[in-house]
């Protein structure tokens, strides 16, 4: 509607200018040029109002939405950066704690291994002592058996050397008499 008022105003203005110039309107093309110009401006104003306004409004909304999203992303990035900074600030403490924990675990493992090795050594020593004792017993029994065998052989040899037919008859008679 504003463009229509604008067109009427310029038509009246051009007619007034023509009357002042010569009293009678001249039949030149200037008023029609102005009329065409006014129609063109009116059409442009109408089109820009009808289509330009919604386009610019949607463009403004897209830009506003983009800015809002950027603000959200910036806030999230700042939060993450703060978390990283906090982790980096406590990183030295965490490393020191991990080193301390590792040393404690190493000490515990070394103690456990030392205890296990001591128990294994004690078991091996006890087993060796038992084996030595068993070997000693076995050797003593073998020695006793060998000594008994030697004693029997020696006794047999002695008996064979000292046993004569006469001694044999006497022993046999003595045995028979003792049975009776």
Task: Give an account of the 3D structure.
The protein has 180 residues and is mainly alpha-helical. The protein has one domain (2-21, 30-155). The protein contains three helices and no strands. The chain has helices spanning 2-22, 30-162, 165-179. Helix 1 (2-22) runs antiparallel to helix 2 (30-162). The protein is rod-shaped, with a radius of gyration of 66 Å. It starts with a helix and ends with a helix.
Write a brief structural summary:
With 180 residues, the protein is mainly alpha-helical. It has helices at 2-22, 30-162, 165-179. Helices cover 94% and strands 0% of the residues.
Task: Give the helix/strand layout.
Elements: H1 2-22, H2 30-162, H3 165-179
Helix pairs in contact: 1-2
